[in-house]
Amino acid sequence: MTSKDSNYPNEGDSGKQITCLLVGAGSRGHNYSSYAIEFPKEFKVVGVVEPREFFRNREKKEHSIKDDLVFEDWPEAAARDKFADCVIIATPDRKHKDPAVAFAKKGYHILLEKPMAVMEDDCREIVSVCKQNRVLLAVCHVLRYASWAQKIKEIIESGEIGEVVNIQHTEPVGFWHFAHSYVRGNWHNEATSSNALLAKCCHDVDLIAYWMSPHKCIRVSSFGHLSHFRKEDKPDGAGSRCLDCGIETRCPYSAKKLYIDRVKLGLTGWPVSVVAEVPDIESVTDALRHGPYGCCVYQSDNDVMSHQVTNFQFENGATCSLSMVAFTSRLCAREVKVYGTKGEIICDASHSPKVEVFDFLTQKSRQINCSDDVAPGRLKGHGNADYLLMQAFVQALRTGRQDLVVTGAEDTLASHLLVFAAEKARKENRVVDIQANCTF
């Protein structure tokens, strides 16, 4: 699909202000929509869909949205004639497909939070409908836009380390982050959200596919387990809620430590902002006393993997492994090692990401600092990649340059299919062969 056979603005419209409908005004949608606050000449949020009154009104006020473009449910907005250039869809994982399909049919360009959907058929339908209606689909695999990830891709493509034969990629989730999001939080149960590999590590599977491109993955295996966060691991004397627990001071997963102590320090952003609409001591305490974030981590109905290793073999013989681990001090600070025939790359993707390249011939290494502070306001997430994603999406619509979006429909579908294959391999305890057309 080229810009001239789509409904993109033409090249001459690069000064156009892109208008947007926000569907889902939680943490991710709220952050992405702030691009309009930082760059009002480029981007404007003109409508919002959000079932929760507090978050709906927050966006209405922040973006001065007219009353008739404020909705509680997305079908009401989709029933209207098209009134914006694009839509940001940041609803819960299992509620991505239906609005994506509906708004694509209306001709809206789409920025879709990851994962694209939680079922293979739904992902395929989203891509198909977007193609049929000639709309741009950009999926929020934001890490492809991160400077360190781009630098690794650049070095591989330069041939500096020869042919890649192996990639080792680790995602250290963080002990308290896993407890917050995957034991107490929205992604704790596969039946109501999705599996941990899709919810947390579709980013990482996507990066491996990105770095290995144009080579295709041909087989996948995966092993995982839910450790520690189980009823049988509950310590003697522990209560059902942290605020009423006799051993709370000795528990690293204490909700009191994680949320109330943060509020006392004035740290009211994520994760505290997820717990209570008004992140003050009274509201957070009440939420911990009555809501899911105050429950003991050892008696939830969580069932997603706390650690998982996934192995990939590519058509050129290269092998790659992804390790996701909950029990780490580092919080989502990826560790990457890329081994080539002429050298290797080591990347520490922490808050100050660095890429080190070692040359086998000269036996010398060089270090590249990939830190930058280009992102304004709330767009600093994922090492500024949230901002870089939004910038690429908006500029693609303003200029008609689809190439600015590196997380488009086909690439995202291909990497999602690898995640589905990995989960099939884990659950069926076998190696899954990937066909040329990415089906299995």
From TrEMBL:
Gene3D superfamilies from the UniProt entry: Dihydrodipicolinate Reductase, domain 2, NAD(P)-binding Rossmann-like Domain
Domain Gfo/Idh/MocA-like oxidoreductase C-terminal: 309-433
Taxonomic superkingdom: Eukaryota
SUPFAM superfamilies, per the entry: Glyceraldehyde-3-phosphate dehydrogenase-like, C-terminal domain, NAD(P)-binding Rossmann-fold domains
Gene Ontology molecular functions: nucleotide binding
Domain Gfo/Idh/MocA-like oxidoreductase N-terminal residue range list: 19-140
Domain GFO/IDH/MocA-like oxidoreductase: 150-223
Signal peptide: none
InterPro entries: Gfo/Idh/MocA-like_OxRdtase_C (IPR004104), Gfo/Idh/MocA-like_OxRdtase_N (IPR000683), Gfo/Idh/MocA_Oxidoreductases (IPR051450), GFO_IDH_MocA-like_dom (IPR055170), NAD(P)-bd_dom_sf (IPR036291)
Family the UniProt entry places it in: Belongs to the Gfo/Idh/MocA family.
PANTHER family with a match to the protein in the record: BILIVERDIN REDUCTASE A (PTHR43377), BINDING ROSSMANN FOLD OXIDOREDUCTASE, PUTATIVE (AFU_ORTHOLOGUE AFUA_4G00560)-RELATED (PTHR43377:SF2)
Record's protein name: Gfo/Idh/MocA-like oxidoreductase N-terminal domain-containing protein
